[in-house]
Amino acid sequence: MKKLLLATTFSIIALTQVGCSAVMAAKQPPKKDISVMASGMPRSAILAEIGAPISSEVKAGKRIDVFSFNQGYSTANRVSRTLLHGLADVATVGLWEIVATPAEAAFDGKKTAFEITYDDSDRVEKVIKLQ
Predict the structure, then answer these.
(1) What is the secondary structure of 14-75 as a DSSP string?
(2) Dist CA 128 CA 109 (whole Å)
(3) 70-92 burial: b if 16+ Cβ within 10 Å, else e
(4) What is the pTM (predicted TM-score) of this model?
(5) pLDDT higher for 15 or 125?
(6) What DSSP element (H or E) covers 19?
(7) Which of 41, 43, 61, 75 is the most exposed place for a label (fewest CB within 10 A)?
(8) Please, which residues have CB within 8 angstroms of residue 50's CB and are 6 or more apart in sequence?
(9) Measured between alpha carbons, how far is 43 from 41 in angstroms, rounded to an integer?
(10) What is the number of other CB atoms lying within 10 angstroms of the CB of residue 107?
(11) DSSP reduced 3-state for 103
(12) Confidence of residue 11 (pLDDT cuts 50, 70, 90)
């Protein structure tokens, strides 16, 4: 009876944990197209792709934006990782989560930062990678 209760308890715990790494892989940050940070590109194109800057100031008549974000993963990468985690969860009755959840927590994208200087017409003049 104790063995049956233990097996049932373990099965319930394992089955309720299934999917954590798969969900984490699906929710990883998307890859941003940093090619928009090219000389001559309008500021609006950068804001549309990267998002709002963490700081913006005007020095010597030129706008300077600082962007900081996690450079994520392509859609194909995220989908394949999600499928792999889901299949491994089913194949191992949830034991895959012991390895996969900490791994997905570690792979949350690479912290990236840029400083962009614009000319008088709000077009990229200079890009400096900070991180």
Answers:
(1) HHHHTTHHHHHHHTSPBPP-GGGSSTT-BHHHHHHHH-S-SEEEEETTEEEEEEEEEE-B-H
(2) 20
(3) eebbeeeebeebbeebbebbeee
(4) 0.71
(5) 125
(6) none
(7) 61
(8) 32, 34, 36, 37, 67, 69
(9) 7
(10) 15
(11) helix
(12) low
The position carrying tokens 């804001």 is: 47
Neighbours of 7 (CB within 10 A): 10
* Complete edge-to-edge strand list for the sheet that includes strand 55-59: 55-59, 62-71, 110-118, 124-129
Q: Which residues pair with 73 in a beta bridge?
A: 30
Helix (H) or strand (E) holding 51: none
Q: Side chain identity at 13, as an amino acid letter?
A: I
Compute the average pLDDT of residues 105-123.
92
* 8 Å CB contact between 49 and 32: yes
CA distance 39 to 90: 49
**Which token pair is 83?**
């499928």
pLDDT, average across residues 103-111: 86
